Amino acid sequence: MKRYVFCAAALVLAAGAVAGCGSSGNSSGSGGGSTGGGQKKITLIQGVANEPFYISMYCGAKQEAAAEGVQLEVTAPQKWDTAMQTSVVTAVTAKKPNAVLIAPVDKEAMRAPVKGLADAGSKVIFVDTELSDTSLGLSRISSDNKLGGQLGAKALAKQISDAGKVLVLSPKKGIATTDDRVQGFTAEITANHPKIKVVSVQYPGDDAAAAQSVVTATLAANPDLAGIFAANLVTGQGAAAAVKAGNKTGAVKLVEFDASQTQVDALRGGQVQALISQEPLDIGRQGIQQAVAALTGKTVQASIKTQLLEVNKQNVDDPAVAKYLYKSTC
Question: Which of 169, 176, 326, 320 is nearest to 256 (CA)?
């Protein structure tokens, strides 16, 4: 029977997937760690609440936790914010779960809170994002984000006939995943697309309105802008809004990372030309598998890279692509 346990952080439920603090499984016990010979307890700390990528990751983790017979709790900060996630980690550390899956929101700043988790006895598994400190985290499970950036560059190059000015958007420096996507994108353009010029790499934060403002200003300064690569869902939302407001839909080609329902609808409607999609369900499933391996003395894989796919208007309705489209509920 599924139950939800409310935690101190002000967190909410997201359409059936827990974006706040909850648990799934058979156990009716409470508190941290395992109770005697009872179920092992695992907590998933998402990067941010109510985001389709993390909802999908939770769905995969939830399914695998049920199969493995472990109890799963999930919690997240309301915003992509170091201080907010630190508060969440501190609360989880006090409960001493057997293992924690975590997507750190900053590869440097979250080191001390994550070390506190490990020092308190929780097995730490990184999912999606990670820390620069390789001594922390028993396993790191994510997309190959440099490859994702490369795929984004190739997709955008195809859309703009391999020539013209492009803008790159990323939320902020210091996030392992998006840093790698930007690096992969710019390296591919530099190496293989000499007629494409990256006019700017901008970091508007995880804020769609700020991203919209950046794109609006860039369009004003570069009326011949040919394309935009947005390194995550939120910057993609802002870019799409700016392109629409500037009456540039279709003229300025847009390639975004991720594949929320909103993004997929925009792809079908022609506002977005391609999405570089991940497999968050698989990241969640494999996170639970590696946590269980760590808790049962089995071999843990130090690094796992999950699949990426370019989703476009030609393949979006292919049944084989469905697993790459994100969920809003389990």
Answer: 169
pLDDT in tens, the chain (330 residues): 333 333 333 333 333 333 343 444 433 233 345 434 578 999 999 999 999 999 999 999 999 999 999 999 999 999 999 999 999 999 999 999 999 999 999 999 999 999 999 999 999 999 999 999 999 999 999 999 999 999 999 999 999 999 999 999 999 999 999 999 999 999 999 999 999 999 999 999 999 999 999 999 999 999 999 999 999 999 999 999 999 999 999 999 999 999 999 999 999 999 999 999 999 999 999 999 999 999 999 999 999 999 999 999 999 999 999 989 998 898
User: What residue type is 149 in one-letter code?
Assistant: G
Rounded Cα–Cα distance for residues 263 and 255 (Å): 10
